[in-house]
Amino acid sequence: MTAQRPNIGYVGVGLMGLPMVTRLCALGYRVRAYDIVTAQNDKARAAGATIATSPADATRGAPFILLNLPTSEAVESAAFGVEGIVHALAPPQLVVDFSTVKVDKGRAFAVRLREATGCGWVDAPVSGGPPASGSGTLTVMAGGAPDDLARIAPLMKDLASRFTAMGPSGAGLVAKMINQLIVGCTHAVMAEALLVAEAAGIDAARAFIVREFSPLLDEIRRNGVGGQDYKSALQELLQSRDMPLPEYRLVGTHGPDHRKEFQVAVIVRADVLGEASGPSKKTTPSDRGPRIAHATPGCASRNTNSR
What we know:
Layout: E1 8-11, H1 17-26, E2 31-34, H2 38-46, E3 50-51, H3 55-58, E4 64-67, H4 72-80, E5 94-97, H5 103-117, E6 120-123, E7 126-127, H6 129-135, E8 138-143, H7 146-159, E9 160-167, H8 171-199, H9 208-211, H10 214-222, H11 230-240, E10 264-268, H12 270-276, E11 291-295, E12 302-305
Parallel strand pairs: 1-2, 1-4, 2-3, 4-5, 5-6, 8-9
Antiparallel strand pairs: 7-8, 10-11, 11-12
Helix pairs in contact: 1-6, 4-5, 8-11
């Protein structure tokens, strides 16, 4: 006999949330969903969800409350606002936040919720985009208390092809931040390769090594990175991929001559790095300058501390 699936409260049925809600309903979960956009609620209802009147109302009768929201501010409002989930939660209900938010904010939300309600909070940012959200093939990086991570493991089997318990609260967000750092730097390198290839008169898409990255190359072409202002174009790309921009900043632009030096600096707040290293990692005031990774054509990457 198949075990009955638990009820789900769901807040945020947008680009990523709606495909997930649709999948959950198709698998037999009873989902009580809420979104601030009426049209999204209508789509969730059509997929089989019951529509709540507020985030607090979405928690009713659900052991798991899932959040899938675009910004730290949206998460804070849904969790702690006038009609936030904090006003309706009680143990053993558990909040799972799929949103990509600032690391320090995510940790603070978890502490705040536990102090107010006694309930746990798991940060579980995802990678894979809307298609993976709808097909149950997301990659989920999770941070939280060990018991809470164990509790959501069966649910994650229906939502993710890869679910990794990264560690304590905030660990999932740190993992996502590192993932996006790699994505951002890859965009920069691919943009530079594209510009050099086109300046040399060859089709970069036909080059063997570039062919392996053709989807990324297509995205760079669509966003107009090659030959343009890298600072603004790459910033837009990072935003489209949920890059935690307060922790990252791109500086410098490419000159009109492709042989001139191109520099991208990805800046990560030192206090975030210190927190990510665990409780035993202590930082001093002199350590709290930004850490900068530079990339220039023809040079090996190098790490420096900026004071």
